[in-house]
């Protein structure tokens, strides 16, 4: 079975604009600003893991952004960061769908396609919904804490880190430790 690192998009791979100290999504390709440390972090992880982006993009349903613009952004990131796959949920909270984080639908689709072992996989996110989705399937979770104006995930369900790069180093370290067991 494959090992994967699941990554959120806004606030993890790219800078997320904030409204009332809560992250939102960018609307256009020109707004992409890859977070510091993401490219070297990806190089570390790419050696041993499938890299799969999972992202909620409800602004498409809310008519704040066009689906084709989200797809352009995602395709650019897939190519630039050498991501193996991307899963997107365009639903809003009212839809109560299985794919929208904190539900694990996108993770389950990736498992089926890529033959992923969740026990050997990791998730890096910046919101409680990311961590909850990862916890539901048994991933080891890393939480980048930006002190958003929202509920933080339980520290028992994740490791708090300062950046994507720090998470990548910790994941790599844990892999080396498991190899030495």
Q: Assign the CATH architecture of the domain at 27-126 and 160-181.
A: 3-Layer(aba) Sandwich
Q: Strand percentage, roughly?
A: 15-25%
What's the number of helices?
5
Helix coverage percent: 25-40%
Secondary-structure element sequence? Answer: EEEHEHEHEHEEH
| N-C termini distance | 19 Å
How many beta strands in the DSSP annotation? 8
Shape: globular
Offer a few descriptive terms.
two-stranded antiparallel sheet, alpha/beta, single chain, six-stranded parallel beta sheet, Rossmann fold, globular, 5 helices, 181 residues
Explain how this protein is built.
The protein has a domain at 27-126 and 160-181: Rossmann fold (3-Layer(aba) Sandwich), CATH 3.40.50.1000. The strands form two sheets. It has a six-stranded parallel β-sheet with strand order 5-4-1-6-7-8, sandwiched between helices. Helix 1 (38-46) packs parallel to helix 5. It is 33% helix and 18% strand. The chain has helices spanning 38-46, 67-81, 105-114, 128-137, 164-179, and strands spanning 4-7, 18-19, 22-23, 50-56, 85-89, 122-125, 140-144, 159-161. It is α/β, with parallel strands linked by helices. The mean pLDDT is 94. The protein is built from five helices and eight strands.
Layout: helices, strands, pairs:
Elements (H helix, E strand, L loop, with lengths): L3 E4 L10 E2 L2 E2 L14 H9 L3 E7 L10 H15 L3 E5 L15 H10 L7 E4 L2 H10 L2 E5 L14 E3 L2 H16 L2
Parallel strand pairs: 1-4, 1-6, 4-5, 6-7, 7-8
Antiparallel strand pairs: 2-3
Helix pairs in contact: 1-5
């Amino acid at each position: 079975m494959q090992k994967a690192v699941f990554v959120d998009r806004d606030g993890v791979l790219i800078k997320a604009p904030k409204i009332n100290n809560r992250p939102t999504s960018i609307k256009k390709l020109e707004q992409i600003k890859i977070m510091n440390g993401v490219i070297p972090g990806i190089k570390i992880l790419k050696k041993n893991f499938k890299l799969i982006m999972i992202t909620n993009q409800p602004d498409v349903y809310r008519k704040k952004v066009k689906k084709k613009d989200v797809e352009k952004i995602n395709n650019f990131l897939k190519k630039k960061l050498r991501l193996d796959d991307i899963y997107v949920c365009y639903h809003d909270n009212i839809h109560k769908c299985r794919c929208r984080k904190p539900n694990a639908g996108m993770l389950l689709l990736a498992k089926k396609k890529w033959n992923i072992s969740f026990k050997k996989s990791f998730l890096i996110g910046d919101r409680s919904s990311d961590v909850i989705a990862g916890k539901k399937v048994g991933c080891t979770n890393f939480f980048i804490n930006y002190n958003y104006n929202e509920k933080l995930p339980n520290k028992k369900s994740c490791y708090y880190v300062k950046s994507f790069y720090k998470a990548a180093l910790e994941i790599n370290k844990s892999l080396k430790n498991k190899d030495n067991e």
